[in-house]
Q: What sequence folds into this?
């Protein structure tokens, strides 16, 4: 098991968290004008870089989303912080 650090609750078991999206992966807008191809690209085409990555995660227990810096190769977590504008 891995321990993730929720900026609101502190260290917790990884089973309490759900991956949301790569940070910076912007939803295409306006929704009424997005083609099926662009929507599929948003949903299924991710950069998935090797090494350091910024990711948005959900801590299911407290219901808060946050940014985690994680190495996708070693799984080492470099830190986590609330989304901009959200206070812990």
A:
């Amino acid at each position: 098991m891995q321990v993730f650090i929720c900026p609101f609750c502190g260290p917790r078991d990884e089973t309490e968290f759900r991956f949301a999206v790569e940070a910076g992966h912007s939803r295409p807008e306006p929704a009424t004008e997005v083609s099926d191809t662009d929507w599929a690209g948003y949903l299924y085409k991710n950069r998935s870089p090797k090494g350091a990555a910024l990711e948005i995660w959900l801590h299911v227990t407290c219901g808060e989303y946050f940014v985690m810096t994680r190495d996708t190769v070693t799984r080492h977590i470099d830190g986590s912080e609330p989304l901009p504008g959200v206070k812990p």
